[in-house]
Amino acid sequence: MNNTGEPMPTNNSYDGYGAYDRNRSGVGANRAALFIHTIGDVAAGFLGLWILLYLLEANQGNVFVEFVHGVADALAWWSQDIFTMDSEGVRVFLNYGLPAGLYLLLGHGIAARVRRI
Predict the structure, then answer these.
(1) What is the SS3 assignment for 78?
(2) For the chain, what is the radius of gyration of the CA atoms?
């Protein structure tokens, strides 16, 4: 009770489950959307990491650098040599940056559409 003797207002929307008390509809869609979103982010992350390693002139003989380069090549196979610049750094940035951006856009866009199901 408050100072005037009236009972305190209650929030009846909280029943112990909080915001996660749904009818379980859409749980599979949300998980699928999270999976798609994550795959797009990981792909873009590898491509962005390769761009960063290349521009910072990382040791090309290092096992980690070779692994990242191999994964980036596999992800960007379709965009190789779209841009043929004289500057090698700009060429790598554009040829690997384009698929990174597309993977981000497609992953987030498809995930948003799947969440609406």
Answers:
(1) helix
(2) 24
Q: State the pTM of this model.
A: 0.73
pLDDT along the chain (117 residues), means of 10: 68 52 66 93 96 94 95 92 86 93 95 89
Distance, CA of 15 to CA of 7 (rounded, Å): 19
How far is Cα 67 from Cα 88, in angstroms, rounded to an integer? Answer: 20
Using CB atoms within 10 A of its CB, is residue 86 exposed (0-12), middle (13-18) or buried (19+)?
A: exposed
CB 100 within 8 A of CB 72: no
Residues 93 and 55 sit within 8 Å (Cβ to Cβ): yes
Which of these, 73, 90, 91, lies nearest to 82 by C-alpha position? 91
CA distance 44 to 58: 19
Q: Residue 83's pLDDT is what?
A: 83
In this structure, how many other beta carbons lie within 10 angstroms of the beta carbon of residue 117?
Answer: 11
